[in-house]
């Protein structure tokens, strides 16, 4: 099956429409080992390095993809759209997802999804029926359910931070059809793991999406185990199910308002509420908030969210991190110190 790649920043892209069109969706994630060099020829370096790494990946891999979709997340998504189109010869699609979730925004969003469906039909000479969309939604829900059950095991068994990241990478970039069976097999495996290690402290992770292993390794090195999060390569992707009892495009609009919200959405209360509930559900005392350098949505939001969470009695640290494949010993030391002081 041909792959259709997409760039979004907070799980805004409607993967199910692409699946119903007969493609495997693949979230573009960049590669920290390759870096941002080729993209830096065309983009200012005050764009976040993750977005520049995504463009770097697209410049080298676009030949493998049937098309490229963008969904409006942070400013990097819409600012990049025109730049990518100027330098990559592929069919491009833009889904203008709203910043709010009120009635007007839902109406607007539904029209955008209808336009996207029509655009794919025109470009590829196909029909994307409601039946195909409903089938894609059912598959997507099976995947989300499998990921949710696996993620819940983080709090009970010895599943390290990197394994969780690798699971999410696989789910968002690989073929979808065989994924539910893969997840069932992994579930059997993870259920046999030893119990949660007593030497580690359970944490809630929030902020910019973590797409490369070094940050997860740094947390592990510091004795911090992520058992809850609200990341796009994490709970935002699987926490909510897409309704199956209403017309499929309307279901995608409803779903968009039901999952853990990213920092780009207003008002921010819903994001904060998710974090509070997640910490409370798993009896978590420590929160790791972080933003990638130049990631303004999470840097700005952190001022408010960390303040409120602190007032609720949670121990929280906020860090700005580099986009680097090197394990940063200073970061590990800061995390270790935070853990020690927070648990005194
Ligand atoms: S890291 Fe931040 S600035 Fe970069 S794409 Fe993600 S949300 Fe946007």
Summarize the structure.
With 344 residues, this protein is α/β, with parallel strands linked by helices. It has a domain at 3-130: Rossmann fold (3-Layer(aba) Sandwich). The protein contains 14 helices and eight strands.
Structure description:
With 344 residues, this protein is an alpha/beta fold. It has a domain at 3-130: Rossmann fold, CATH 3.40.50.11890. The protein contains 14 helices and eight strands. The strands form two sheets. The chain has a four-stranded parallel beta sheet with strand order 2-1-3-4, sandwiched between helices. Strands 6-5-7-8 form a four-stranded parallel beta sheet, with helices on both faces. The chain starts with a strand and ends with a helix. The mean pLDDT is 96. Bound molecules: iron/sulfur cluster.
State the main characteristics:
single chain; 344 residues; alpha/beta; Rossmann fold; four-stranded parallel beta sheet; 14 helices; 8 strands; binds iron/sulfur cluster
CATH level 3 topology of the domain at 3-130: Rossmann fold
C-alpha-based Rg, rounded: 20 Å
Distance from N terminus to C terminus (CA atoms, Å) equals 54 Å
State mean pLDDT (0 to 100 scale): 96
Bound molecules: iron/sulfur cluster
β-strand number: 8
- What letter string, H or E per element, gives the SSE order? EHEHHEHEHHHHEHEHHHEHEH
Strand order of the largest sheet: 2-1-3-4
Name of the CATH class of the domain at 3-130: Alpha Beta
Number of helices: 14
Helix content: 40-55%
Largest sheet: 4 strands, parallel
Q: Classify the secondary structure makeup into a structural class.
A: alpha/beta
Proportion of residues in β-strands: 5-15%
CATH architecture annotation of the domain at 3-130: 3-Layer(aba) Sandwich
């Amino acid at each position: 099956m041909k792959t259709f790649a997409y760039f979004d920043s907070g799980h805004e892209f409607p993967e199910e429409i692409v699946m119903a069109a007969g493609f495997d969706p693949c979230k573009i994630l960049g590669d920290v080992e390759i870096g941002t060099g080729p993209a830096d020829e065309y983009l200012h370096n005050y764009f976040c390095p993750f977005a520049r790494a995504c463009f770097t990946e697209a410049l080298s891999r676009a030949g493998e993809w049937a098309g490229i979709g963008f969904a409006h997340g942070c400013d990097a998504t819409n600012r990049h759209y025109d730049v990518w189109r100027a330098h990559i010869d592929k069919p491009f699609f833009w889904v203008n997802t709203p910043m709010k979730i009120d009635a007007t925004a839902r109406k607007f969003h539904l029209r955008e999804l209808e336009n996207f469906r029509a655009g794919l039909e025109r470009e590829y000479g196909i029909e994307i029926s409601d039946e195909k969309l409903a089938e894609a939604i059912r598959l997507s829900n099976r995947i989300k359910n499998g990921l949710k059950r696996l993620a819940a095991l983080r709090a009970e068994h010895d599943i390290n931070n990197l394994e969780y990241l690798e699971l999410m990478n696989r789910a968002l970039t690989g073929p979808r059809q065989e994924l539910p069976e893969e997840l069932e097999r992994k579930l059997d495996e993870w259920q046999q793991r030893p119990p949660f290690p007593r030497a580690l402290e359970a944490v809630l992770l929030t902020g910019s999406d973590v797409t490369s292993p070094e940050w997860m390794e740094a947390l592990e090195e510091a004795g911090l185990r992520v058992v809850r999060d609200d990341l796009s390569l994490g709970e935002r992707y699987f926490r909510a199910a897409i309704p199956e009892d209403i017309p499929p495009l309307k279901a995608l609009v409803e779903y968009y308002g039901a999952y853990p919200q990213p920092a780009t959405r207003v008002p921010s209360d819903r994001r904060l509420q998710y974090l509070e509930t997640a910490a409370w559900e798993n009896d978590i005392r420590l929160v790791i908030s972080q933003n990638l350098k130049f990631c303004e949505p999470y840097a700005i939001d952190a001022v408010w969210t960390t303040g409120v969470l602190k007032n609720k009695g949670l121990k929280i640290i906020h860090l700005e991190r580099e986009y680097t494949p090197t394990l940063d010993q200073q970061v590990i030391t800061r995390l270790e110190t935070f853990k020690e002081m927070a648990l005194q």
